[in-house]
């Protein structure tokens, strides 16, 4: 069943036309001026890229090559060619892998989720077409829902198949180039210019193999394919001219023509893969969430119209009044919850130190009342007992004597009120009550002073939480946790997942080698190189900051070495996870 294209696929026509006319212009200039370099526009565009060229995975050369005067003083053409091939193939492989992961994730979803994707996440045009098709199916009393689910599965499976084939071919080509450089690494270090002709011929043959593996994709299109349009331009690579094969050394003109052919093949490969990826790429975020953006745009329009009706443009002062009220509210919030609590805390702290002598005087007043009560109790007790009582006797003991005498005096209150000790005992109890009241007031004063600071801190809590939230947002923005190059916990998890991915692909590579599946083994080795390249870029900055980069770089180069045994690579991976940039987050250890 044919599936109409989405808007994201139709937008690829403009990119394809621009690439077509750029190739046409380059070919016309080369026809008029045969000696005009074909890669002039590519090199010219590189000079004006917004981002600097990223260093790719190091070449598999002997360690002594890093100290070779040839590489330090003069960058040979052979290294430029190989590094250019690796960089551009890795970039294309990353583009394919990113889109393939999206479609593979969609392929694992349920039929209802696939149908929802077909209707709601491919743009308004697909929404209208699929809705109309669904309604026609319901009118015809057919299984429209089953047909929609089957159409969604075919739509996704076709993209998974094409991108998987493209990824495997690119990974195989990457592995073949990398292994070829590793095979002649010693000779490249010793005499790079002498090995250049044979390397150019080998790379040309590898391009021919790549052409045979992915060049047929322009013609493989079923009549009910969901991909819009056809792949109108087949992939035809230039071959290195086989001239002067009898001579032991090529001339500079022949080498220059061969290099131009390699760069031209890279340009064709980039254009071809870009076209395939555009036709099979995942929908953009704006296309996937176009319904949300539509409602957001409608809401924004309504709000804009509402604000316009209350603005000066239509003679209303409501908007100005609201802005003034918001300004005053902000100033009031700052004063009440930030400025005044801080000043109150400051004044209270300094007030405590300034009035500490006053606090001592109050304590002395309580002490005077206590001493007076003690003397009154002592005098009353000596008179009641008729003997001297030690001066260090406790107030509690003497108070018991007073209470006993008070109880006896109450038996004849009127008589003892005039002639007895009843009035004296009552006055002593009043003095005791005064002492207890002053003690309680002193403690209450201390509690109130402490709570004044607490109330000021409590008033400042809203501003504190607002500042804390702002700090967390700024911290998350600076950490940039969404990618493996970030500095947060999620970035560390992404880097550890890359290490696990490298390990898994190395093990699968060895399994294919043991089974004698050479093609699958090369594909898996190329994917391992791709994962190592991503790991190389994600840990470089962090390892340089911690001083671990030199050691970690050597480990990554060892993992990419084709000749190293799988057991040795697994041993390297086991101690790679001990580097600081690959450790789990501090809070999760």
UniProtKB/TrEMBL annotation:
Topology class, membrane: Multi-pass membrane protein
Entry annotated with the keyword Isomerase: no
TM region positions: 455-478
Primary localisation category: mitochondrion
One Pfam family cited in the UniProt record for this chain: NCA2
Keywords in alphabetical order: Membrane, Mitochondrion, Transmembrane, Transmembrane helix
Subcellular location: Mitochondrion membrane
One GO cellular component term: mitochondrial outer membrane
Protein name, UniProt field: Protein DGS1, mitochondrial
